[in-house]
Write the structure tokens for this entry.
Amino acid sequence: MIQEEKFQLTPSIRKKLLTYGGVGLGLLILGILFLIFGGQSHGAEAHAGSEGGHAEFHWYNRLFANLWINNVYFTGLAIIGVFFVAIQYVSQAGWSVLIKRIPEAFGAWLPYAGVLMLLVFLVGGHSIFHWTHSELYDESNPAYDPIIAGKRGFLNYPFFLIRMVAYFGLWYFLFRLIRKESLAEDVNGGVLHYRKMIKYSAIFVVIFAVTSSTSAWDWVLSIDTHWFSTMFGWYVFASWFVNGLAVVTLIVVILRENGYLMAINSNHLHDLGKFIFAFSIFWTYIWFGQFLLIYYANIPEETIYFVERLDSSYYSSIFFANLFMNFFFPFLVLMTRDSKRHTIFLKVACTVVIVGHWMDFYLMITPGTLGENGGFGLIEVGCALVYIAAFLLVVLTNLSKAPLVAKNHPLLQESIHHHT
């Protein structure tokens, strides 16, 4: 038997998170004020991504762009947490039983993510998405765009909102079913709840296989409405997944260093490190596959996406930093067996991957929304800090509501004695 552990969300931890959130909010407000009084809030032209149009730039354009980046980024963390748990049940894996409560807690962010996503779209969608401009669909208007007008059956306000609500509704409903059975198993034991979780997880994986791509098309790809890529859904999934693995691993390491999850050994950490190593390579494979095909074909309507990011003196540096942080660094650091079994290497690698994939979403979203008016400063740091604090507060609160280890899981002993 294993001793029951329960995470304590102490007033000290809560105070730190609220402090980080407060500092983030302060930086965000300062960044907005500097933008307003720095002369870039009015009159400047904001390049409207690959659509080739221009619109007047205001400080709130940058705010909405940052809110959208963080919405997509943290929604990905929440949904990947549920996905990670689901694939453990579908594959009937035993090694991960000791850590499954951490990604399971990520799902608690989904309702908050859904509300934030909906609010930001309703208030700032016109600033983020070029296809929301009504003049593009009016043939008598000089701004009429036949390509965007041809996509009106899919890209329109009602259908977009219906899809958004459907995504979050399905994801959260299935998460609640899995979570309910997981907690019931702690009380009742047996295999009934385990079998139900396998069933619900299989349903979730099938739904997620479709919605992970369609949500990526909606929330990220449609920003550059003219451009398209058949690999884009996989690209966003790869970024979400390796980032989720890094956050799970970092939290496991930090909890273990603070006296929790003592049954976890270097073998579990090794497997988590292997996952990050492997899916960093997978992300790079998708990235390179998408880039190479577009580069080799050299079709203008396809290459414009990369031209905007490579020809810009600002975005080009982020473009190459993205590759370094998300492939070369984790590949070199986590290549050896020992590096995946020592927490210092894992903490450094995970931190770089987490920041790197935030930059990846920044690079996906900012050029298409802000063009050359994009920047990185107080607004970006402040907004990210607010979201980090809110996400961790929700996740850690959820984590404290149940035992850290699923004590009646049928494969618990396999996890305790896991060896690689």
Q: What stands out?
A: The CA atoms of residues 254 and 304 lie 43 Å apart. The two ends are 22 Å apart (CA to CA). The chain has 14 helices and two strands. The longest strand covers residues 45-47.
